[in-house]
Amino acid sequence: MTEQPGTDADRAPVRIERDGVVATVVIDRPKALNALSPEVLRALADAFDELLEEADAVRGVIVVGEGGRAFVAGADIRSLSTLTPEEGAEASRLGHRVASAIEAFPAPVIACVDGFALGGGLELALACDVIYATDASSFGQPEVRLGLIPGFGGTVRLPRAVGLSLAKELIFTGRRIDAATAEAAGLVARRFADREALLAGARATIEEVAANAWTAVALAKRVLVDAAGTPTETAASLEVAGFADAFRTADMREGVAAFIEKREPEFSGR
């Protein structure tokens, strides 16, 4: 993807590109390093609401920033500078609404980070199921340097991704880490040399997912999201319920039958 002519204001801040079973959500504010203004957050929520209506045809979503310099460099600081505490809480709720829409989407969502993923950008990536990144990418939660704390889920999801100790260090210091460090910490699942390889790798993963039982993938995501951060007993109960739900699907019957009959399954998504 190349930067389109004109200013950021000349076009919608978020667009959806569709290619077969893959949908790509592009944050398109390259001159502002794709910063998350309220307009962008609302557009992201709307994009996932729109995709949810056609979820049966989408087997995976890629989230990417336009321009090649940043996935998302953070929240739009100018839009935050004049907020009252009550308006700040509302801005935080809007960020959480986007994260919830991503987590509720039944197909895997891959954040493709190429450049900065800072503040709200890292929080957006953390809401996705998987983070892929180019070698040129960097990550951080620098909110304390502005007298703020993470407001779009960073204090919740970053400890789950990298552990409590490292999450505290990153949040307390505002320090950035590079892609290699992020991969070693478990934040990034895979690294790629450049943007082209990044997007190709994400698409290949979604195509691999698409070959499996759609019902099972959606159930697995539901359990993984719902069980995150819960006590073991609660998480186990959620898994039991999801496992039982799988037995209600035609895909489970087909998958087991195909295994027994030594043939490739023909999943119907039911």
From TrEMBL:
Top-level taxon of the source organism: Bacteria
GO molecular function: enoyl-CoA hydratase activity
Enzyme Commission (EC) number: 4.2.1.17
Pfam families: ECH_1
An example Gene Ontology biological process: fatty acid beta-oxidation
Keywords assigned: Lyase
Keyword field contains Lyase: yes
Gene3D superfamilies assigned to the protein according to its UniProt record, in alphabetical order: 2-enoyl-CoA Hydratase, Chain A, domain 1, Lyase 2-enoyl-coa Hydratase, Chain A, domain 2
Enzyme class: lyase
Catalytic activities: a (3S)-3-hydroxyacyl-CoA = a (2E)-enoyl-CoA + H2O; a 4-saturated-(3S)-3-hydroxyacyl-CoA = a (3E)-enoyl-CoA + H2O
The keyword Lyase is assigned to this record: yes
Matches recorded under PANTHER family: ENOYL-COA HYDRATASE, MITOCHONDRIAL (PTHR11941:SF54), ENOYL-COA HYDRATASE-RELATED (PTHR11941)
Family under the similarity heading: Belongs to the enoyl-CoA hydratase/isomerase family.
Record's protein name: enoyl-CoA hydratase
Originating species: Agromyces bracchium
